[in-house]
Amino acid sequence: MKSKNILIVENKQQDLKLFEYLIGQIHTFDSVSTGKEALIKLSTNPPLLILFSLTITDIDPASFMERVRNQVKDSCEVIALVPTKDDSNSFYLEKLGFESVIHKPIHPKEFLLKIKCLVEKTVEKETQKSTASKYPTILNSASFQQLFRLSSKEVIHQVYKDFEIECDSILQQIDSSMEKITREEFLRSIHTIKGNSGTLGAEKIYEAAKYCEILGKDQKSIEFSNSLAYLKAVILEFQEFLRKNPTVYGA
């Protein structure tokens, strides 16, 4: 999955420069000054988030949201940039489908915190949707039954035990926040567990590890950190499954 930008749609140059400066500190971005340009961007490279200023004049908010949902469904969130502190339109904007409202003028620290939270929420939703829709099972029974036909129960049991040790090792690396190892070493560990989990049918771990590896290579620190938390949760889920099903190998 290609890492997605934040798309800034703002026709006030002073505001646009400020948003570009702030968002550039935490994420990649594209910026346009019209709704028409935004929709073109949307069709070629759907963003992670869209910041849409209500000062845009070539398309109204309702029409913009309708076009967004027609093009990308719910694969990205849209945030309204409102040019006043008046909250009277918030309910209306939420009804149109805007995920959140940010009032101008902004406070940089609060703005960055808001964007970070929205990015993390969107990435988590996208990760969960991807893993749930493609690989809903903790352990693919067909995969380990195929392995069992190729070798003895004792050998396969040991293979899964070795994989559990790998899982414990990467959990320790996640909990240590990579303080004692380099990013390259960590990515090698993720790559290894991705390959082994795919072979052994631990498909939720495979998808989570694959997503972590992509984000880690793309240097997306916030999304990478969030994806690691999900990988940890999936590994713990897998380990709990094995503890509750001790005879699963070759059953």
**Radius of gyration over alpha carbons?**
22 Å
The CATH C-level name of the largest domain is: Alpha Beta
Strand content: 5-15%
Distance between the termini: 36 Å
Number of strands: 5
CATH architecture of the largest domain: 3-Layer(aba) Sandwich
Instruction: State the major sheet.
Output: 5 strands, parallel
Structural class: alpha/beta
Approximate shape: elongated
Strand order of the largest sheet: 2-1-3-4-5
List the total number of helices. 10
At the fourth CATH level, what is the homologous superfamily of the largest domain? Response regulator
How many domains? The number is 2
Please name the CATH topology of the largest domain. Rossmann fold
What is the mean predicted local confidence, pLDDT? Answer: 84
- Give the helices and strands as they follow along the chain: EHEHEHEHEHHHHHH
Helix content: 55-70%
Unreliable stretches, pLDDT < 50, 5 or more residues?
A: 131-136
General description of the model:
It is a single chain. The protein is α/β, with parallel strands linked by helices and 251 residues long. The chain folds into two domains: 6-127, 3-Layer(aba) Sandwich (Rossmann fold); 135-244, Four Helix Bundle (Hemerythrin (Met), subunit A). Helices cover 63% and strands 9% of the residues. It has ten helices and five strands. Strands 2-1-3-4-5 form a five-stranded parallel β-sheet, sandwiched between helices. Helix 4 (90-96) links the parallel strand 4 and strand 5. Helix 8 runs antiparallel to helix 9 (203-217) and helix 9 packs antiparallel against helix 10 (221-244). The longest helix has 27 residues, at 108-134. It starts with 5 loop residues before the first strand and ends in a 7-residue tail after the last helix. Residues 131-136 have low confidence and may be disordered.
